[in-house]
């Protein structure tokens, strides 16, 4: 040994190092190309597939997969315990779940990453995913492949890309769906079908969708669905045009001027344009239109809508030039990308297969932003036009628009650009998340390629958000109808020589406009909960018809109509007479208070004879103002009449006050509906994976608030015409007008297996809001008595009198309790 030198031991040292470095465990950890699949044969896999047909209108499929891997068998086991973002973890998980499969998983969704648990002797991986059957395409989730045989029969097959030689235990929970074991290899066990020690190729079965599900699945993708949406827009346009045309025919002769024609023509133009644009968008969505043509049509239509709106009418030439310059400049930038794509290094068809360059992305952004900006500008221009024509725009805004039109156009343009930019940001963020989801474990450049994916969604930016923006233009339709109704109301007030009218509510064309406002806002939003676009036109007509039915009943049973026309013309013809009515109402409440004190045996400031004399005097005052041939009912008193008249002098002012109150009362309901919408993992994932999901939350909140405010407006407008002495009964008269089509929708949903509880909850929220609004209107009617009451609640009690206040409050609390319990049931 003494003669051995160190360099003589060098071959032995090198051999030892090579043996240590190339041992299976270390080699597996250092080689990122090998998966060592044979070492997974000793793993145990438990796979369960579950079906749920009760989630909205589609069938949900859940895959729960648990893999137990012996710690010493597979070289990559330890890498599963590393950080989830590390390359080693991703490589090990890909080898475990995907193997050599590099296809995108576009139908598979995961609420969280696989859970890895160190169990000492082995490592457990829990891999859960889910999917929804929304079309007849192939569904791939976890180790399962689901394909359709026909519209009602589907096949589920276990086809894992890895772990084929492992020990499998498989189960299927059908959730009420029919089960047909094509290989006769499954065994029933505790309400589910199981496979143990069965070759994977034999684990396949058929399941049948109930007719309600495949009918909805087939209808949603048929031409009849698009026909239903188109019929809704055409029917809506006809109703708008009819209301505007009838309004034009009935205006007083003193109002027959150019401005009147402009106000009516604006609504008629919008009725025609909205229907035409809707048909155009439906045609574009149903046909394969190339990105250049799609963008060209969107930009051209947005420019035309903006210029046709003519928001400068009634102003100066500078206003017209400012609006035209802004709209044409933006359109020119967008069209430049389409006409000369080579300037941005884009091909003529605007879609590239490779990763788009920076200049190409700039071209996409300019084209998309131009289209979205123009449509936002068009909606803004039309809203301003309606507000100006209807004389609803604040005077300060009008003065600024007249003094500095260029500054106003610049500020509005920047604001719209910020909104369009935010929408673009949502698009890029959501589509980026979609790609990460689809290409998880496969790699950034897998499948069709990330570059082609980016190019495709950027080239479709314009159409995606143009459709989204136009979907919510029903709010703009409501504004148009309100503007025409407001203009007609002001025209009548100015034409009245006395400056006042004793009209109890909207009449003739005004009644049709009011009903249309209700149908296009509160009614349409309720129709969205019904879930079937085919019933939209029917829903619209039913809402208008049922509201006219309530008005027909109100002409006979409302308090003021039962008092007779002579009383309304005599006692309510002027502000002075109405002040006397309120004075009598205050006096009557005091007499009732004294009577209650005397009934209790306490000391009062008046004797019983004085109280009775005062009450007889009140009755005589009522009788002298009424037709002697038809005296008013004995139970109606001056307080009932004051409450039936409302806090304002004109029915329009009652409507505006009620709209404001309902708007604020509706905030909790809007938040509750949005929370209900976002309660599931599916909806939360949509927020980060669908481009319109986040904007849709904002738009829905605005839509809900518009619906509550519009319902309150109609309640205030019809306040004096609705039947019932107690004010909450008037509110429920309006709820009844909404409930007729809602009940029909519930019956249809129950027949087709749809979810109708959301529509019921919306109806309950509306009932609560309108009931609370009616109480608020009564409180406002006797607002002067607030100084004598300890609180607003005490004022409510005193207004309704002690014997009736408990019932009204219990009625409101009962509605709130029912809505709360239903909301908790749905969200739980």
Short structural summary:
The chain is an alpha+beta fold and about 850 residues long. Helices cover about 60% and strands about 10% of the residues.
Structure overview:
There is one protein chain. The protein is α+β, with helices and mostly antiparallel strands. The chain is built from 28 helices and twelve strands. The strands form two sheets. Strands 3-4-2-1-8-11-10 form a seven-stranded mixed β-sheet. The chain has a five-stranded antiparallel β-sheet with strand order 5-6-7-12-9, with no helix packed on it. β1 and β2 form a beta hairpin. α7 packs antiparallel against α8, α15 packs antiparallel against α26 and α27 packs across α28. The radius of gyration is 35 Å and the shape is globular. It starts with 9 loop residues before the first helix and ends with a helix.
List keywords for this structure.
five-stranded antiparallel beta sheet; 828 residues; alpha+beta; 28 helices; single chain
Sheet with the most strands, sense and barrel status? 7 strands, mixed
Helix content: 55-70%
The share of residues in extended strands comes to 5-15%
Shape: globular
Poorly predicted residue ranges: 6-32, 251-259
The assigned structural class equals alpha+beta
